[in-house]
TrEMBL record:
It comes from Opuntia streptacantha. This is Pentacotripeptide-repeat region of PRORP domain-containing protein. InterPro entries: Mito_RNA-Proc/Resp (IPR051240), PPR_rpt (IPR002885), TPR-like_helical_dom_sf (IPR011990). Belongs to the PPR family. P subfamily. The keyword Repeat applies. It holds the Pfam family PPR_2.
Length: 457
């Protein structure tokens, strides 16, 4: 489809949907479409139905009208959308009429019944979702473990994991659950923060399907649930070691969640154990977000040297420092007055186009001046005026006063003139201090020129 045709396609479907939406309930007249000489394709029918969930009666009228144009050849996807639209609007009798029509066409699929399961559960009619599962094979769709998992997933998504588990206990003698079955239940227990339920399902999983290195989602959810309990972090670490012995492991989801818990509790030891468990694995590496958490954790604890090592190690794992990585470390170096290292990080940040934050720059100018390093203060100031265009006045005036106090009067004058040229307000007190130094150095005329500029700014 060309760009022009794509535009016309979107315009047509939205125009039809808008006309349907604007009509009073049950008052949309199909002859409006007939008179317009509109011709629709299967794809356009799908798009209109997608946009019509708020107008089910009108959508069905349109669907029937479009069926005449298409000689009854609606796509299976369009039929599934209609079933879903009717179910989500609790029009269950009409939904089953559509399903019977699909059966005649031979186009029913598990996707159809997955929609029905979801509609019943959302409508707080879980028992009818169960009954639908029991009869679906009469409609030519196998009642197998994939269908079972679809049903359980619909129930767990709506916070009814206990109900899903009860159904599994009754039905597992006929349909043997697989690894995905337990992953679905464990994700449900995780959402509901039900630690006891998660433990029961995990134990049952080990009995039914055993340890499986591919079952990462189940391990992720189980460990994430455990962490939320009392003494949960240490219990999760214990299970992590057990998994390791069985050649199984969780994925990046658990490690990320566990690191966030360590950050929240300022637990450097726990974070180090997790990090070691991640680093010995060959199937994935820590990403930038994980490195940032470790950098932030150690900066908060005052372990700036350790944070710096994490920053240096990032590239070896294919992760690259970003704005957060650099600014967190830069701020901590300034706070602990490690100014040589701060200078180095600042230079690296600028080189790598990761801008130091304005707050960090303001702190850096002050600290470098206070520590007797005006050159570095000037370097930071130059960066500030090139990259920020507000909140510069206070720092600029502090720089002028600091340069004067360091007996660098000519540089103070230079940057004072630059501030005036840039329309950054030079305070009268800064000008007065400069006057004393310039008069004392026999350079009163320089002050007079500066004053003249200042008055005409």
């Amino acid at each position: 489809m060309t760009e022009t045709h794509l535009h016309l396609h979107h315009h047509l479907t939205r125009s039809i949907a808008a006309a349907m939406a604007g009509a009073p309930m049950n008052k949309f007249k199909i002859w409006v479409l007939d008179d317009s000489a509109i011709v629709v394709s299967q794809e356009e029918v799908e798009e209109v139905v997608k946009l019509s969930y708020g107008y089910p009666s009108t959508a069905v009228k349109f669907f029937r009208w479009a069926g005449y144009q298409l000689n009854g050849r609606h796509s299976p996807y369009a039929w599934n959308l209609v079933v879903d639209l009717l179910g989500k609007n609790s029009l269950f009798d009409a939904m089953w009429d559509a399903i019977k029509s699909m059966k005649k066409e031979g186009i029913l699929s598990l996707a159809t019944f997955a929609s029905v399961f979801s509609s019943y559960v959302i409508g707080n009619r879980v028992d009818e979702a169960f009954m639908t599962f029991e009869v679906m094979d009469q409609y030519g769709v196998p009642r197998d473990v994939v269908a079972l998992n679809s049903l359980l997933s619909a129930i767990c998504r709506e916070g009814r994991t206990k109900k899903a588990n009860e159904f599994l206990q009754v039905g597992k003698d006929k349909i043997r659950p697989d690894a995905d079955t337990f992953a679905i239940l464990l994700e449900g227990w995780e959402r509901e923060e039900d630690i006891a339920g998660a433990r029961r399902s995990f134990e049952e999983m080990l009995l039914e399907v055993g340890w499986d290195p591919r079952n990462i989602p189940a391990y992720d959810s189980f460990l994430c649930t455990l962490i939320k309990g009392p003494n949960g972090f240490h219990e999760a670490l214990k299970f992590l070691n057990t998994m390791k012995e069985r050649r199984c492991a969780p994925g990046i989801k658990f490690f990320g969640f566990a690191l966030e818990e360590c950050m929240r509790k300022l637990d450097a030891r726990g974070a180090a154990l997790l990090w070691e468990a991640m680093k010995i694995r060959s199937d994935f590496r820590p990403d930038t977000h994980m490195y940032n958490m470790m950098i932030s954790l150690h900066c908060q604890l005052g372990n700036v040297d350790i944070a710096g090592r994490y920053l240096d190690e990032m590239v070896y794992d294919g992760a690259f420092p970003d704005y957060h990585s650099y600014n967190t470390l830069f701020q901590s170096l300034l706070k602990t007055r490690k100014l040589r290292e701060a200078s180095s990080i600042f230079t690296e940040m600028v080189k790598n186009e990761c801008l130091p934050s304005q707050a960090n720059c303001i702190a850096a100018v002050r600290l470098f001046l206070d520590s007797g390093d005006p050159c570095m203060a000037i370097k930071v100031w130059k960066f500030m005026i090139e990259n920020y265009d507000s909140n510069l006045e206070e720092t600029g005036n502090f720089l002028i006063s600091g340069l004067r106090d360091c007996n660098r009067v000519q540089e103070a004058v230079k940057y004072a003139e630059d501030m005036i040229d840039r329309r950054i307000k030079l305070s009268s007190s800064s000008l007065t201090k400069l006057k004393h130094s310039l008069v004392k150095a026999g350079m009163a005329s320089v002050h007079d020129e500066l004053l003249k500029k200042w008055k005409h700014r």
